[in-house]
Amino acid sequence: MDGGEVIPMFLKVIACEIAARELYFTASRSPNLVDFELLTQGYHDTPNVGRAELQKRIDAVPEGKYEAIILGYGLCSSILGGITARTTQLVIPRAHDCITFFLGSKERYQQCFSERPGTYYFSSGWLEYAKRRGNQGTVWGGASVPANSNLSLKVAYEQWLQKYGEERAKFLLEEMSRWTDNYTHGTLIDFDFLQNLDFRQQVQKICAEKGWVYEELKGDLSLIQRLVDGDWRKEDFLVVAPGHKVLATFDEQIIRSEPV
Fold it and tell me: CA 16, 20, 191, 179 torsion: positive or negative?
């Protein structure tokens, strides 16, 4: 074996289904071998529940099987606070939420949100997650709940659906969904490898219905690619050693670790 030969790592990815297409695409180009475990969207709405579920999945990973466990989550309403590495190191992007994954860096995330407040960002996962659960409606015209809405609204809608049926539940949802009044723009985060899909038409239709200005923003997969490639520079990723836990920093680092 040559001294310069790089041996691929075996990595475990535990991530939100929102980033499914982007993670699969980047993993297909990575020299590493990657196992995926995708969790249903929405755990960030109940941080305590989500944190417990993430920890359960981490704890179930066999000792010594992987070089690292990658968490495909941002801070996301403090879902990461208290997450602990057991026998395998954790690698976590420094990101406030998943939109950072699709924009390429926390710096670009901040720039975009500062330059255009009142923008609702759409990615492939935000447009498709309901269908992953067998719901064929769209987030705006069918039976599913808007992806960026809060937990209480989602829970309420499910209760209304069971109690009153779809028509009444949709009416109540529309009455309660005034959060959209704060938005003026709908922006599709666009990637070349998704050009064959109809995401542009979907978002244009949503914007027309809501009276929003439609825009497109070029996506950047560099952060996700480096995540699965093992290029974990400390300014963009936190590597959590076994026996350490994750804490929010409330500064530009976003997260840090300390011994349990």
Answer: negative
Annotate 183-242 with DSSP letters as a single string.
--EEEEEE-GGGTTSSHHHHHHHHHHHHTPEEEEEE---HHHHHHHHT---TTTEEEE-T
- 53: CATH: 3.40.470
The single residue listed with the structure tokens 């297409």 is 21
DSSP state of 141: T
Pair 94, 112 in one domain: no
1 belongs to a structural domain = no
Question: Are 146 and 227 in the same domain?
Answer: no
pLDDT tens figures, 75-122? 887 899 999 999 999 999 999 889 999 999 999 998 998 888 889 899
- Kindly report, residue by residue over 6-62, the tens digit of the pLDDT: 789 999 999 999 999 999 999 999 999 999 999 998 887 778 899 999 999 999 999
pTM assigned to the model: 0.83
Coarse DSSP helix, strand, coil percentages of the chain, rounded to the nearest 5 percent: 40, 20, 40
